[in-house]
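Duplicate of earlier report; Tyrosine-type recombinase/integrase input re-posted below.
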Amino acid sequence: MGKSNPWIPTWSAGKNDWVIDFRVEGKRFRKNLRIRDKNLRSTAMQKARNIYKKAWRDAGSSNREKKVSTFKAVAELYIQQGGEERFLPKIVKHFGPHIRVDEISHLDIARAARAIYPDAKPETVRRQLRVPIKAVQNFAAGRRREKIPDTRRTRWLTPEEAERLLVTAADPEAINLRDPNLETLRKITFMLGSGAGPGETMAALGENWNPATREWWLEGTKTVFRARYVLLPIRAVELIGKIPDSGPAFPAPDGQTYTFRKNRGGQMAVAFNKVRDAAGLGKAVTPYVLRHTRHSWMYAMTKDWGDLLDQGGWNRSDTANRYRKITPDDLGHRLLEHGWDFRRDPGASVRFGEKVSLRIPPDTS
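Output:
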């Protein structure tokens, strides 16, 4: 059975000194105290006790340090758990395999920016260096927001369904909808062309329209959408028709300006639902589905992820991921057949046959 106080020193006549001999966490401490007077036992006891306490403090610190993983190891776990990998390899390479995740300071990040991105703009450094490092550190500290798998099915309209909706909205009298100026058709078209939400559509201002570039400035909302420019395809511009120079661009069917409420997007639902039902579309098709439709259409045609994020206006990019995988491969061609072209630069027009090359076999007769 071990001593209750293993640090207590003993007098060694051979060494003419007080001696300690104990272990802390497997490490042996055996040394002379250099107190060469047998009568100074209390002094030796105090010094031995201090050495023993310090040994345990050092052992605790060492254990804590061992529990803190390296940035490289945490980054690998972060990626395995679904974290963004794109910019981390350069960062890990710069810091090497040994630096702890909690050791990287603001100065270290500044030095890394100078080494990895010497000519980059501050926003690039923030996005490609500071944000990934912070994400890994938050992951190590258990502060990472857990991603919930996106299992929600996003309803969007096929070009054929949208055509039925537009044709119905273009003849409101046939469905007993009092809409002499076709304002419901204009709003449906604007949302299909811009991806604006219902509330954004009713708040859209004529002075924010740039006909030269076919871009509309949407001022965004406090919590849902960022302010942004959206590009309208030519067909949307043609169906919307005349746009006022200033003021609300899309009034109610009776021509009156909307009075905004907390849930202002629902104010167009009555007229929209009447058109939807007459077009034979189910109740799952709400005004908001038009926003989903536009972004599904645009990405299917352009495959431009950056443009999707810019024009979608999401405060987080997670939501935009669903628009990359919910449409069939032929959707872009079908959209062109119906006159919807979301490409910023479709290229110069060509005559039939200009891009066709025929290889005529030689005459062997």
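The domain at 159-337 is CATH 1.10.443.10 (hpI Integrase; Chain A).

Merging into the original ticket.
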